[in-house]
User: Which sequence fits this backbone?
């Protein structure tokens, strides 16, 4: 194991391919645009994918799915797009360069998080409508923001809760930040945003199943890619070995 | 007229392209057919109104606190003066997002000062005041630097003579010093206002993004840009036109122009 590590460290240092087949003639860079909620899981998947074999370097751009879709429409060089909502994949299909190999690869549920200390009165979803509770959501159009509003509507507390919103964050990680800093009383985020590093600093409040929303994550190769094989291989990896990694970060299987 | 070296002409044209091309890009991308809809969109109007309040408020704070500070830095000598000057300039080079986190750490609910304010029932983050403070934070150095430069450029013998003739210090300051630095003060004020108007990073971090409360024009452009780039371009052009109008109005009068520099 240590030798393997040493070899891979050396291989990385000399800038070569870290796989077994050390003789990569060239190593294309694969650009993967992925929803902010995938930051931790895809980071790990990228590391494993690079080690697993194909001569390719993966770089990620994490952000709100709506913003990433807009970047693709604007011609940003992207090989793979992983969205937190089918809506924004549809937009890329209709108005953008088109896609191939589209497949749903994960699902996610949402939870309410509050600061771990006792500064907040929020103990249940309905408490989000409490007078004076400071609520932070992702902005409208951002999948996490749209799902959150759907949940509030399902629970019949739209008016009360939206009146408590103090900020519409650019992406779901912005919501997590405001809660971690203790500036807001509650936020609605994906279950997977409560990562190991975050867990001890927030309190998680479950959303009743009958009002919760399950987010479906599609992934696809962008048709304009110049690295078709490697992009396809990455999607295959996400559907294969990647599934276990996604599970370990709290994602649900696609079906 | 002196002959201009050709290489300077080429590089100068490159400089113009650097700042001019994005503007041309915006103009080509704007959906002219629905400019009116985009500009009269309630979200854009709310943001415009809020941007006016926030940028003017921030400029007022910067002037009230900045002019005395510039005077102290320029006219007095005390240990650590250069350190103070360095700290004052810091927001110019610091990423605004870092400034926003710093403001939260100071004035947030768990902040050094904010925790005490919170105990008194005062909470600054997510309010319009927070947006004003964030904008003032990032633009303050421009005001101080401009005024300090003005104070350093005037002949201090004039002030000493006025004082020696028995002018009360406050009177000398008001009737002699301030009129002498008026051009620099005006230029600094305009630049401070323009910087405050464009402020984004510290605002979204410290004040959040809420329409009508903290969503200034740059934040509206960002939120809209995610879903409606065309509308965002129109709002951006509104922002550009606004700043440009003020900068042009001030040109020649206060900002350095072709004649003023000689």
Assistant:
């Amino acid at each position: 194991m240590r030798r393997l590590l040493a070899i891979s460290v050396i291989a990385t240092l000399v800038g070569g391919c870290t796989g077994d087949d050390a003789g990569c003639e060239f190593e294309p860079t694969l650009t993967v645009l992925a929803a902010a909620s995938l930051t931790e899981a895809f980071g790990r998947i990228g590391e494993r994918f690079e080690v697993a074999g194909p001569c390719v370097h993966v770089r990620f751009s994490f952000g709100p799915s709506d913003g990433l879709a807009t970047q693709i429409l604007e011609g940003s060089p992207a090989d793979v797009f992983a969205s937190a909502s089918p809506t924004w994949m549809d937009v890329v299909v209709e108005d953008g360069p088109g896609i191939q190999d589209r497949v749903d690869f994960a699902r996610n549920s949402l939870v309410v998080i509050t600061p771990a200390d006792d500064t907040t009165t929020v103990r249940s979803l309905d408490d989000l409508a409490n007078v004076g509770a400071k609520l932070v959501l992702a902005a409208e159009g951002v999948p996490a923001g749209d799902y959150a509003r759907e949940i509030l509507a399902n629970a019949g507390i739209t008016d009360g809760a939206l009146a408590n919103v103090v900020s519409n964050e650019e992406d779901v990680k912005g919501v997590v930040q405001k809660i971690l800093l203790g500036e807001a009383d509650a936020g609605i985020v994906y279950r997977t945003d409560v990562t190991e590093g975050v867990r001890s600093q927030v309190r998680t409040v479950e959303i009743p199943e009958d009002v919760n929303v399950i987010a479906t994550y599609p992934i696809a190769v962008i048709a304009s890619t110049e690295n078709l094989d490697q992009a396809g291989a990455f999607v295959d990896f996400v559907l294969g070995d990647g599934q276990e990694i996604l599970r370990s970060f709290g994602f649900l299987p696609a079906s | 007229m002196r002959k201009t070296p050709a290489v300077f002409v080429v590089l100068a044209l490159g400089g113009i392209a650097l700042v001019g091309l994005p503007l041309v890009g915006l103009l080509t991308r704007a959906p002219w057919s629905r400019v009116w809809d985009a500009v009269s969109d309630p979200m854009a109007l709310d943001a415009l109104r809020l941007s006016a309040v926030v940028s003017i408020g921030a400029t007022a704070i910067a002037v009230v606190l900045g002019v005395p500070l510039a005077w102290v830095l320029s006219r007095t000598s005390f240990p650590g003066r250069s350190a103070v000057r360095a700290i004052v300039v810091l927001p110019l080079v610091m990423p605004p997002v870092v400034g926003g986190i710093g403001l939260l750490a100071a004035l947030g609910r768990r902040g050094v000062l904010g925790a005490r304010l919170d105990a008194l029932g005062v909470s600054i983050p997510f309010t319009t005041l927070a947006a004003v403070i964030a904008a003032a934070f990032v633009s303050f150095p421009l005001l101080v630097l401009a005024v300090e430069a003005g104070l350093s450029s005037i002949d201090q013998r004039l002030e000493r003579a006025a004082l020696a003739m028995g002018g009360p210090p406050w009177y000398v300051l008001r009737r002699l010093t301030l009129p002498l630095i008026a051009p620099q003060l005006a230029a600094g004020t305009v630049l401070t206002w323009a910087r405050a108007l464009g402020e984004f990073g510290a605002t979204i971090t410290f004040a959040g993004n809420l329409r009508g409360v903290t969503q200034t024009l740059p934040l509206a452009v960002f939120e809209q840009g995610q879903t409606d780039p065309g509308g965002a371009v129109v709002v951006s052009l509104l922002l550009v036109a606004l700043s440009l109008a003020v900068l042009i109005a001030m040109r020649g009068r206060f900002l350095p122009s072709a004649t003023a520099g000689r």
